[in-house]
Amino acid sequence: MSQPEDAEARRAVQPVICYPNETLPVPELALYAKAREGAEKVDEVLVPARDAGCFRAKAGQFFRISSVDGPQVGDLNLWNANDLNERFYSGKSRALHGTHLTTGERMWSSFPYLRPMATITEDTLGWYGMDQYGGSVHDVIGTRCDPYTGNLLSGSQYHHCCHSNLTRALADELGVSLAEAEPHVHDVLNVFMCTGFTRDTGQYFMKASPVRPGDYLEFFAEIDVLGALSACPGGDCSAEHSSDTAACYPLLVEVFAPQEGALGDWQSPPVNGYDRSHGR
Ligand SMILES: [Zn+2]
């Protein structure tokens, strides 16, 4: 293919960060950590392998997702527990924080709300960083494994992809039909999953998760949240993720409530301040 004479010069232009995030409100991690010290467990849900489960955490509570029994990745959906229209916005969280989330970073909600739903307060895989392939953990670049893509690529009818697991779990939680629940399911935070993009073709890749039993990712709920977590049929996602081939394990979700007054005058963040007049 022919290229312009100044092709190299054009490629050599320095990139600029799309969304410099120095002005993002900084989470009060020290306050959260202090409140966490005296917190008591108020609920737990064991999500079975190749299935999903729902949980709820009130604003100011903590929820922890733990690996138990064996290496396993989880696909997390999050909604405002009082209004399902407000849900996790994977794409904007990626634009603000980068391809993978860790301690101090947040799960942001959809328009027109765009506010922090949950802040990561602890990540026992924080040591992993970015590996030699450009891989890291807890990504917001994947979507969720789903039966439609499986059908498109291989004509399969597999029913325990994360998309279907999340749909069933939400339908049960809300007491609605699968058809009513499905449109609420959205792109996930890939908990414990190790992913990246290949440098040569830019393709999405996965590799065996470094997670081991006892590892966990813990969040501070900034608003009342309803969560759904799927224990992906890919297990540790070392090979494939839309079949019953991989070894799969449960995931544990625990919810912790701080002592009364432990958060001082902390307040749940308001919805985004844009006036929504859109130039009219
Ligand atoms: Zn999955």
Describe this structure in words.
The protein has helices at 7-11, 29-37, 90-97, 147-154, 162-174, 178-181; strands at 40-47, 52-57, 62-67, 74-80, 83-87, 106-108, 116-123, 136-139, 189-197, 204-207, 216-221, 225-231, 251-257. The radius of gyration is 20 Å and the shape is globular. 17% of the residues lie in helices and 29% in strands. Strands 2, 4, 5, 8, 9, 10 and 12 form a seven-stranded antiparallel sheet that branches. Strands 1-13-3-11-7-6 form a six-stranded antiparallel sheet. The protein binds zinc ion (ZN). Zinc ion binds at residues 75, 144-145, 161-162, 232, 234, 241.
Low-confidence stretches: none
The 3D shape can be described as globular
How many alpha or pi helices? Answer: 6
Q: Order of helices and strands, N to C?
A: HHEEEEEHEEEHHHEEEEE
- Mean residue pLDDT: 95
Number of domains: 1
Structural class: alpha+beta
Strand content: 25-35%
Major sheet summary line: 7 strands, antiparallel
Helix content: 10-25%
Bound molecules: zinc ion
List the helices and strands and how they pair.
Blueprint: H1 7-11, H2 29-37, E1 40-47, E2 52-57, E3 62-67, E4 74-80, E5 83-87, H3 90-97, E6 106-108, E7 116-123, E8 136-139, H4 147-154, H5 162-174, H6 178-181, E9 189-197, E10 204-207, E11 216-221, E12 225-231, E13 251-257
Antiparallel strand pairs: 1-13, 2-12, 3-11, 3-13, 4-5, 4-9, 4-12, 6-7, 7-11, 8-9, 9-10
Structure in a nutshell:
With 280 residues, this protein is α+β, with helices and mostly antiparallel strands.
Short descriptors:
280 residues, alpha+beta, 13 strands, 17% helix
